[in-house]
Amino acid sequence: MSAAVTWLWLVLLALQDTAPLRKSDLVRLISGPAMSPLELTQLVRRNCLTFQPTDRDRTDFERLGADRSLLAALDECARRPTTQRTPPPPVSRPVAPRPPSQPPPPPTPIASAQRSGFVSGGGQRGSAGAQLPRALVFEARDSAGRPLAGQTVTFTGINARTEPASAATDAAGQTRAGVTLGQRVGSASVIAAIGIVEKQVAFNVVAGSAEQLVVLCGEGAVASRFAIRPDSGVVLRVFAQDAFSNPTPLLGLRAAVADARIFRVLHVTQDSISGSVALKPDQPGTTSLAVIANGMRQYLTVTVPPRAAPGKVDCR
Known about the structure:
The protein contains five helices and 20 strands. The protein is of the alpha+beta class. Strands 10, 11, 13, 14, 16 and 17 form a six-stranded antiparallel sheet that branches. The chain has a five-stranded mixed sheet with strand order 2-9-8-4-6, with helices on one face. Strands 15-18-19-12-20 form a five-stranded mixed sheet, with no helix packed on it. The protein is elongated and about 105 Å long.
């Protein structure tokens, strides 16, 4: 089933159904393009939720794009008694007569919220954008503790992606999903849904290895070339970032000038996250400056204009 058909099916189901929304339903609707913020707010006010939103849930919803009106609707639901989605009553259909010796069909198994949940893979720590080494294992059992085979479990990631997005349980009542962490440093989570049961597991996302140096000049402009007026100096700020622009530790900061007659490096300082390079002009001219850290080099073009030129440090 394509993503567009999946979204359309979810929206039509939500609009026709008056049952409360599960957390995984809400995550998909907020992050998907099929409903406007106003429509989603009206849906939440009409149907409400099967769960009580926590502060962490609110933060996750905001990061996914929830606006103030939707958050207010969630708060209204939180003040109501918590309801749970119940399956619709069975539709009465004529049943053909059975032979007296034929037993009735077994009841449809229902997952128990107390006995079902994640049994492995939670709490892992990994770099942004990386796949976690251990797969998630979800186990479905009924109220008597018996494993439920052939039951579909749907996984929804927040700052994470699962593969597959849904899978059926095996004979032991288990199903597995690999997890690839999102691009944002901090927390990530995966919600597993089976029937009315939802379980959530969390992960810790850290920055990856340094992939780029960022050099700031003046009041925050990213420097590629700039001028130092003869009667002034400049302090550059230096940061290291991973492939997703998350800050990483800055290591071994130093600076080298191609022509030291034009300007000098007065001093270089650094802490675990950032550093600074102070420059002082000596005579007019243009040369290059290499900022070096974490095994990388960032080259900048620096001009010292004639002494008569007015103005301040020019970063661009």
